[in-house]
Specification:
- With about 1000 residues, the chain is α/β, with parallel strands linked by helices.
- Among the domains are: about 170 residues, Rossmann fold (3-Layer(aba) Sandwich); about 150 residues, P-loop containing nucleotide triphosphate hydrolases (Rossmann fold), CATH 3.40.50.300; about 60 residues; about 80 residues, Arc Repressor Mutant, subunit A (Orthogonal Bundle), CATH 1.10.10.10; about 190 residues, no CATH class.
- The strands form 7 sheets. A 12-stranded mixed beta sheet has the order 13-14-16-18-19-20-21-22-23-24-25-26, sandwiched between helices. Strands 27-28-34-33-35-31 form a 6-stranded mixed beta sheet.
- Strand 11 and strand 12 form a beta hairpin.
- Helix 1 crosses helix 7, helix 11 packs parallel to helix 12 and helix 16 packs parallel to helix 18.
- The chain is flat.
- One of its GO terms (biological process) is signal transduction.
Length: about 1000
């Protein structure tokens, strides 16, 4: 791995300070002024290079080309005879190329020549240039040379430099030039790090983003915990792009400067202005500095890095308003507090993450061994050290340097010590973030999380700490913003191990020798000492003792008697003997895994408890008599294998989560569960002895999640479940439930369901459930409550929120569910849904239905017909049936003789094959009373009446709806169904009706009769 700052072709490492470009005199010797300038620069300590020989008429020598590329500054001396040298001009072309691509500074000197003549190639300067170009120089065309050289001359002459006539004498000119060069060299690349492991990918990401924002002012933030490498990345980015900016400033250690010096803000303002305008200024107060910065920076393209900002006022005093600076400007802010970046409304926040294992080992090895990999004997120890550092560059560098050159035994001793006491330097650096917290509540929240709540649900912790008076909603948010904690998968609280150790060390240092005087106890040996010796004090606010399940350690309850301020108690497999009255009276959390008793003693005061967690306990019943616990919100008795019944819930009015997972002997849920008006979650997973739920549970309007999976003896969910108006998640897989309550499908709140073999988002699952009720291959009654009548109104499906692609066939002989209304968002989507339903669910080609008659070759003599009445049109249906039968029996040509239009009583529309199209008449003076469908078909089935199941799709292209009905041929539509259809028809609506049969039927013609007004004696009309 290279030890150079950044390895990139677009950012060369400078070999020289200055390359001097000038024209030799007429004798081939050095220009007198150029010689004196070269001497003056070298005497000032400037590493200056000039060409040694002239190669007139040839390309640049490769060595000379490399010298130009490796020079940080190019000083170009334009003289009257400058355009007489092709060597000078080729060098200038190369210089301007390096200026463009590598950020090389170019400083022109106009020695006894007019800058405008150089810029525009006019006067004697221009004539000399043309004369040189006209010479035959390697066959190049004159125009090409003039364009190439002229472009370089113009670009260089447009840059700021010196004009000899502006100085009183040559000595003054030389002094000014040397001073100017030195000023530029002072602004060197900022030092990054000796071992830049893993930097380049971050630099590329940030610079790529900046490049894409080049047309505006770009403000970005680099955020992360202390020691993660924010400053290092900011320096590397600054070095990478600084050459694009004439005006630039890197302001480092802002937090520290402002903390140490009460005039720190003014000091930073002065530095910013000095860096940008290269002039010292006097600033007497912060407000004056803000005004001056606004005035001097206004409209300029600047690069400003504000490193280690700890509060908004620091930015406000320097460069908070992006309106002050010009387009193309870049401002980079590094901070541990993302809230500052949010207030500034930065364009993008780059969050610095910990290094991966490979990068961590390499960085550690560079510091511990001065090599990229550990030596053989130290590989295992190095991996332990890297694991401890958790990918934090600061810790890797500090620990690696500390272990450099030490023996194996010393390594082992250091790593063992770090398990108890963090490295001082790392601890102090990380503690900066803790010290920056504004009040004691934020600090208390951080310390509580360090010791007791890592890996726990954020909402759970928030509720407990709120009850401790810590205002934890805002407190936890502040800790996240400052990078002290993070939110991991499933909303769990997380924290870097070194930050955890830093917080615990703060507590340990409060009383290094007497743990009983600390506010929190978590280390097993410390807790054991305090409990065995019964030395507890009122200083203790939290205590955790985690023992193995096989532990038989016992303590007297009196050991807790003096812990008057104990709020948080976490015990695993701990046994207490004695009177539980000695336990503290202000507990907010009692987490006691493996609680040894069969019930909680009545004198164990829990009146202030917010969360009771007795997982894997020996409890058979929670209390002998109900306990009034007004603050209790969480009750967890999971994996309590002896628990037989739940407590009486009537005295737990604020309970929000009831977790009873894997309680195999639980057989009774107290009916008072219906009194829990604030309950959000009930989890009864794998309670295998539970046979039913009390009906009162369906009264829970606040319940959001109900989990019954694995309750193998629960066989029924009541239709009352529809009363749970907040229920969003229902998980009841692996139960004996065979009926899907219809009220669930009608629920507007359900978001996720797992029931009767259906699992997924409700919008995907519900259509499958509905269609299964209508499928001929499934016994619908096995999925429905037998008393549920679903024929009165259609099930409504919104195709925007439901996936209709997995629908089963919709016609069946046993289901009472007979209609579905599908709402589409557009005619295009409606056509797609039709294709899905017809092609995939009926195995009928939708394209054929649209374009051809699938009955074109059917013999008229084999035709039969079906009449389906919809609405008030019985007389018409009877008369049509008589007329068609008469035509068939007498062998009328064409097989069927159907009446045509007889307006104002009906309108007739005929379609070939399975469908018929029509437009609802615009005449609103007559009321549409009903319609009759007449379908002529042939069938290979002998017993048509037994098999002739039909589905009717009424498609409204205007309203983008598909109304699907399942029918037997003998059944007509009732009045309520007709009203449902009629309500979806409007004058002028573009309609189409599909009539689809089961296999064995071939349809020739479909006719619809729209019946208007009052029906008269239709027999006379048909005769």
């Amino acid at each position: 791995m290279s030890k150079s700052p950044i390895s990139s072709s677009s950012s060369p490492q400078w070999l020289y300070d200055v390359f001097l470009n000038f024209r030799e005199d007429s004798t081939g010797g050095r220009n007198t002024f150029a010689s004196r300038l070269y001497l003056a620069l070298n005497m000032a300590g400037v590493n200056t290079i000039i060409r040694e020989t002239s190669n007139k008429g040839k390309e640049l020598d490769p060595e000379l080309s490399r010298s130009i590329e490796g020079s940080r500054i190019a000083v170009v001396v334009f003289s009257e005879n400058y355009p007489e040298s092709s060597q000078c001009l080729e060098e200038l072309v190369k210089i301007m190329d390096c200026h463009k691509h590598y950020g090389q500074l170019v400083m022109p000197i106009f020695y006894d020549v007019n800058p405008s003549h150089v810029r525009q190639q006019t006067g004697a300067f221009g004539k000399a240039l043309e004369q040189l170009a006209e010479e035959q120089f390697e066959g190049r065309r004159v125009v090409d040379l003039l364009l190439r050289w002229g472009s370089a001359l113009t670009q260089a002459a447009n840059l700021s430099g010196w004009v000899s006539r502006a100085s009183r004498n040559e000595a003054e000119l030389l002094e000014n030039i040397v001073e100017g060069v030195l000023g530029k060299l002072v602004d060197k690349l900022v030092h990054i790090t000796e071992f830049p492991v893993g930097l380049e990918s971050h630099v590329q990401e940030i610079t790529r983003y900046i490049k894409n924002q080049s047309s505006k002012v770009c403000v970005i933030g680099i955020w992360g915990m202390g020691g993660v490498g924010k400053t290092t990345i900011a320096k590397a980015v600054y070095n990478h792009i600084h050459h694009n900016f004439v005006h630039r400033s890197f302001l480092g250690s802002i937090r520290e400067i402002c903390q140490i010096d009460n005039r720190g803000h003014i000091h930073l303002q002065k530095q910013l202005l000095m860096d940008v305008i290269k002039t010292k200024v006097e600033i007497h107060n912060i407000e004056m500095g803000i005004t001056m910065i606004e005035k001097r920076l206004y409209g300029k393209k600047v690069l400003v890095v504000l490193d280690d900002v700890s509060n908004y006022k620091q930015v406000e005093a320097l460069c908070a308003n992006r309106k002050w600076i010009g387009q193309g400007s870049v401002m980079i802010i590094t901070t541990r507090d993302v809230r500052i970046l949010q207030i500034l409304q930065v364009d993008h926040v780059f969050e610095m993450m910990a290094m991966n294992e490979s990068e961590s080992l390499e960085l550690f090895s560079w510091h511990a061994f001065k090599e990229a990999r550990p030596t053989r004997d130290f590989i295992a120890l190095s991996r332990h050290a890297v694991t401890y550092c958790g990918g934090l560059p600061l810790a890797l560098e500090v620990l690696g340097s500390y272990l450099y050159g030490r023996r194996i035994q010393e390594w082992e001793s250091v790593l063992s010590k770090l398990k108890r006491i963090p490295n001082d330097f790392v601890h102090e650096k990380l503690k900066i973030s803790y010290d920056g917290l504004l009040d004691y509540t934020e600090k208390n929240i951080f310390l509580d999380i360090c010791c007791f709540f890592i890996g726990m649900d954020r909402a759970y912790v928030t509720t407990i700490l709120n009850d401790c008076g810590f205002h934890s909603e805002i407190g936890i948010s502040v800790l996240i913003e400052k990078g002290l904690i993070k939110i991991e998968k499933n909303n769990k609280l997380g924290m870097h191990d070194l930050l955890r150790d830093m917080g615990r060390e703060i507590i340990r240092q409060s009383s290094p020798e007497e743990p009983e005087k600390r506010s929190r106890l978590w280390a097993c040996e410390d807790v054991l000492d305090v409990l065995k010796e019964q030395t507890g004090t009122k200083a203790i606010e939290g205590l955790a003792l985690i023992l193995d399940r096989t532990s038989n350690t016992q303590f007297e309850t009196k050991a807790f008697e003096k812990m008057k301020r104990l709020r948080l108690l976490k015990l695993n497999h701990v046994q207490l003997v004695g009177d539980y009255e000695h336990l503290p009276k202000h507990l907010r959390l009692v987490h006691w895994q493996g609680f040894p008793l069969k019930h909680i003693p009545d004198n164990f005061y829990l009146g202030d408890v917010v969360a009771l967690d007795f997982k894997r306990s020996n409890i058979t019943h929670v209390w002998k008599k109900p306990q009034l616990l007004l603050r209790l919100k969480f009750l967890n008795l999971s994996h309590s294998r002896y628990l037989m019944r739940t407590p009486d819930f009537s005295k737990l009015p604020n309970l929000e989560k009831l977790i009873l997972k894997d309680c195999p002997n639980l057989s009774e849920i107290h009916p008072s569960i219906g009194d829990l008006s604030n309950i959000l979650v009930i989890n009864l997973k794998d309670c295998t002895s539970l046979c039913n739920l009390p009906r009162t549970i369906y009264l829970l309007k606040s319940l959001k999640t109900l989990i019954l999976s694995g309750c193998s003896r629960i066989s029924k969910l009541e239709e009352d479940i529809g009363q749970m108006e907040s229920l969003t998640t229902l998980i009841a897989d692996n139960t004996a439930v065979k009926q899907v309550p219809f009220s669930i499908v009608r629920s507007k709140s359900i978001g996720y369901i797992s029931l009767c073999g259906y699992e997924g988002l409700a919008r995907n699952v519900f259509p499958s459930i509905i269609w299964s009720w209508m499928s001929p291959t499934m016994n619908a009654s096995s999925h429905m409550h037998p008393s549920q009548d679903m024929s009165s109104s259609p099930v409504y499906l919104d195709s925007l929120n439901n996936n209709l692609g997995d629908l089963a066939p919709i016609f069946g002989s046993s289901s009472k569910l007979r209609s579905v209304l599908v709402q589409c968002s557009s005619e295009v989507q409606l056509t797609q849904e039709l294709r899905t339903i017809i092609d995939e669910q009926y195995a009928v080609n939708f394209t054929e239905l649209e374009t051809t008659s699938c009955a074109s070759q059917v013999s008229d003599l084999s035709l039969r017909f079906i009449l389906i009445g919809i609405g008030s049109c019985e007389i018409l249906s009877d008369t049509l049936g008589t007329s068609i039968s008469k035509g068939l029996n007498t062998g009328v040509s064409g097989g069927l003789c159907l009446p045509g239009d007889n307006y104002p009583y009906w309108l007739t529309h005929t379609g070939e094959g399975h469908s018929v199209s029509f437009r609802v008449p615009q005449d609103s003076s007559r009321c549409l009373k009903g319609m009759t469908l007449c379908v002529s078909y042939s069938s290979t089935l002998e017993d048509v009446t037994a098999e002739c199941l039909v589905s009717i799709l009424i498609v409204n292209y205007t309203n983008c709806t598909i109304h699907i009905y399942k029918r037997e041929t003998a059944i007509s539509f009732d009045d309520e169904e007709w009203q449902g259809i009629r309500s979806n028809l409007g004058p002028g609506d573009n309609m189409k009706i599909f009539v689809l049969f089961r296999h064995g039927f071939t349809v020739k013609k479909t006719v619809v009769y729209l019946v208007y007004g009052e029906l008269i004696d239709t027999k006379s009309q048909l005769s």
